[in-house]
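Re: the request from the purification team.
They wanted to know what the chain is likely to look like in 3D before they choose a buffer screen. I agreed to run a prediction and write the result into the notebook, where they can find it.
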Amino acid sequence: MELKKLLIAGVIILLLVLGVSSLIRFARAAEKRDPAELAWLQGTLIAHRGLHDENRTVPENSIPAFRRAVEKGFIIELDVAMTKDKKLVVYHDKKLRRGLGIDQYLHELTYEELSKHTIFGSTEKIPLFRDVLDLVDGRVPLLVEVKNEGKVGEMERLIYEELKNYRGKYAVQAFNPFTLQWFRKNAPGILRGQLAGGFAVSDYDLEYAGTTRLPWYQKLLLENLLLNFLSRPHFIAYNVDDATGARLKSMRKLGVPLLGWTIKEKAEYEKAKGKFDNLIMDSVISDVTGNLP
């Protein structure tokens, strides 16, 4: 009798384990596309916020940075945010203190108000997304990060309106799986990538860039890609600092391209280049080849 109870308990535990494993696999699954559609993502290295120089003379996410990236033939990664008057601009931080020196949030200002300021002590101003699209004009691919942590819908629709007639290769990516879910439902033809990592936020990023510190349960879900059932991404972009061997192996099982962000030093490049399908790189990109290893 005792043996029978143990066997029944063992079967129940096994079924529970198998059930949980199946749920996790379902939650984390990606959507595979024809490899030919994704080949450009692995063609050349990706210039993080354009080919800037750490904001010394050529600011990140600026027209000169994007022009330099085009000249060198790099894929361009850029960030799109929305102003108070619903203008799409290219800027990374939620708060303007790091880049503009003012203690306000980008969404609190109109584009006209933003245009009164220059970025990172240069003569450059925050560009409109449309102006960047006109500049690049399909000459190199674009990796467009959607910076929407608010209500999903309006901003995504405006980005889609700008992109749907764009002549050139591009993909959208976001940390917010609900943003990608919008594109999945409303623009399924657009390639979409899930951004993730450990979500560590420094005091500097919190104070100067307005980066959000997530509660532990949100971090748990996002860093383990457990909301992929919403976004069903075509590729993953993961923080290289958080990509342990076990995590890399797990992500490889998803069967989609894996990008690593952000490489800041040549030593990081050498360490990471064989582990990812492509790398998103800061100014150190100028010190390495534009072709993938």
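For the purification team: The chain has one domain: 31-287.
Please add any questions underneath this entry.
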